[in-house]
Amino acid sequence: MKPLLDKNLTPFLKRFDDFVDAEFRSIEIISSSAVKITLAAQDSARGFDWITIELEFNGVNDARLLDNSKLSHIDMSNGITLIYTDNQFVFGVGDYNYSNITDSICYIKAISLKYLEGRF
User: What is the DSSP string of 35-68?
Assistant: First the structure.
């Protein structure tokens, strides 16, 4: 896995069109402070081919997670929110900002973030 730094968030999200219409595949609780989510999205760097992206959040201090059986029912038409603020990464399903991220059906706040690209 590669670290995803705050300065690289904007190009990362642009590359995957903010994960609009992506597929939310899984949530894995690695430990009490680490969570991995898996998404499938179109990659503009690969001619818009579909690939799998794993996002691993470490130092998780707040989260609302869903059971994997419910992930296929999530509306991803607004993509995801992924921002860095107050020395933490904030993830949420949908279009949110830091102040209302807890309104998301699924969100994670963590100290660090890594990602891995895989096959569709």
Answer: EEEEEEEEEGGGTTEEEEEEEEEES--EEE---G
Gap between the Cα atoms of 80 and 39, Å rounded: 10
Helix (H, G, I), strand (E, B) or coil at 4: coil
Contact 68, 74 (CB under 8 A): no
| pLDDT tens for each residue of 17-71 | 999 999 999 999 999 999 999 999 999 999 899 999 999 999 999 999 999 999 9
Domain range summary for the chain, segments of one domain joined by +: 2-119
Q: Closest by alpha carbon to 106, among 70, 52, 54, 56?
A: 70
Residues 6+ apart with CB under 8 A from 101: 81, 90, 92, 107, 109
The first and second tokens of residue 82, run together, are 């992924």
The span from the CA of 2 to the CA of 118, in Å, is: 12
Distance, CA of 51 to CA of 55 (rounded, Å): 13
